[in-house]
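Predict structure. Chain length: 100.
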Amino acid sequence: MIKKSNIKKIALEILFGENCDVDKTWQAPFKKTIPCKKCNADMIPMLQVSDDGGVTNNIPEQVTKGREKGLELIWPHDSLIAMVYFCIECGAIDADYNQA
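Prediction complete.
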């Protein structure tokens, strides 16, 4: 059973459309477009959700140094960022995520 005192409030940062930032990630950057699984057209970022309340706007040094070394998987703390993509042809929706 989860005690009420153990529950923390989570600040979400939600970005839409052109405001989605493919570089806002704890791991490898999100792709600017992905192929649609239904019609193979381009899917573009539609929605991005980060559960760290925007902390990744100030990317920690270990992430920056890791990326300089070519590392794609860096785990400084527990957090999640999801990118939802929208197909510009058929309207399909797909998503990608990574966590730290």
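Summary: The longest helix spans residues 61-68.
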